[in-house]
Amino acid sequence: MDVGGTSAVWNLPNALTVCRLLLIPVYGVVFASGFVKSAFFVLLAAGLTDVLDGYVARKNNQVTVVGRMLDPLADKLMMLTVILSLLFSGMISWLAAGAIFLRDAGMIIGSAVFHFRGKQTVPANALGKLTTVLFYVAIMLIIFQLPFAHAYLWFVIIISFVASAIYILQFVLLNKRSVGH
After folding, report:
1. How many Cα neighbours within 13 Å face the side chain of 73?
2. Where exactly are the transmembrane stretches of this chain (predicted)?
3. Of 63, 118, 127, 175, which sits 20 to 30 A from 95 (CA to CA)?
């Protein structure tokens, strides 16, 4: 049963999310082959599937539990792949990569644990979506080697932790209300 959406698992939004998951190794191969700027365009293609799947899911009432789990997982796995590629190529520091990894791993593990314990999960909010866009901009600035790229990345890392704190608060409030009903 699919609470809060359609019961169809294989719909267009979920297919787009699977495409985004498949673009992760494509990005990795392109980046590792030395085509760093081309890899950024693979990342942009993945970002477009993210925007499109969310739009189609909401417009056509095709939001599914599977989609609500896979979509953020695909986003986080792509971002972790990108961060690792930037780290191992020396384009970002260990400290920046560690902060991003800590935040994203915590969000992935926390969401999975709570989902499998039957807790309600919080859908993406405007700040979370903005954070994703800001990370894309930071990655672009780093890949194209603009002088303020690393300062901007740290700004985005701080915003991402604020967004995570808001998600945690929303999660606690949502599940506190559902216990009372």
Report:
1. 18
2. 12-32, 77-102, 122-146, 152-174
3. 127
Nearest to 77 by CA among 48, 101, 53, 52: 101
Q: Residues 118-164: pLDDT tens digits?
A: 777 776 678 888 998 999 999 999 999 999 999 999 999 999 999 98
In whole angstroms, what is the distance from residue 49 CA to residue 53 CA? 6
Note the Cα 71 to chain centre separation in Å.
7
CA dist 131 and 124 (Å) reads 11
Indicate the length of the chain as a whole number: 181
State how far the Cα of 143 lies from the Cα of 140, in Å rounded to an integer. Answer: 5
Cα gap 43→39, rounded to integer Å = 6
Q: Is the pTM of this model over 0.90?
A: no
Contact 19, 112 (CB under 8 A): no
- Least Cα distance to 47 among 6, 84, 78, 18 occurs for 78
Q: Kindly give, in sequence order, each residue whose CB lies less than 8 Å from that of residue 100, ignoring residues fewer than 6 positions away.
A: 79, 80, 83, 157, 160
